[in-house]
Amino acid sequence: MDDNRAKKMYDYHVWANQKLFQHLKQLPERLYKEQINSVFSSISDVMVHLYATDVTWLETMKGSSYQDTVSTVNRRKQEASEISIDELEGLYRSLSEEYYRFFAEQQDSEQIIITEHPRFGRTEFVLADLIHHVVNHGTYHRGNISAMLHQQGERGIPTDYVYFLFK
């Protein structure tokens, strides 16, 4: 898949996640796993959720069956739940490399991805739309983390798309 808007959006997603990790690692370590009353019970829970969802959509884009995707996601989510923020950052990096390898194998970002889901049945997605969904989902949850940090008396880090464009 040549450079295009969908890949550029994914580049932004990777950049924003890296900025978030850099910021989180500068804060008191206790904040990462501290239980709070919010959308998620801890920042680490949000980070693991975001990782697991990115795995889900990559498996979907690659054409994995629903059952294989669930199995892969459960295994990788369990692994991600039991490690430090530094190790999770490494998993994110590895996952982005998986995405980029997948993108390199694609000829057309407008290709149709067909999948079967037990609840939704047979579904068809445009690859670029799935990439945009991954990015939107990440943006949403990075916003959750910013709000959670404010609840804990800390500031968030700006990761809006325009900041990516400024770099």
From TrEMBL:
Binding site for a divalent metal cation: H49, H137, H141
Keyword Cytoplasm: no
InterPro entries: DinB, DinB/YfiT-like
Alphabetic keyword roster: Metal-binding
Molecular function, one GO term: metal ion binding
Similarity remark: Belongs to the DinB family.
Name the UniProt record assigns to this protein: Damage-inducible protein DinB
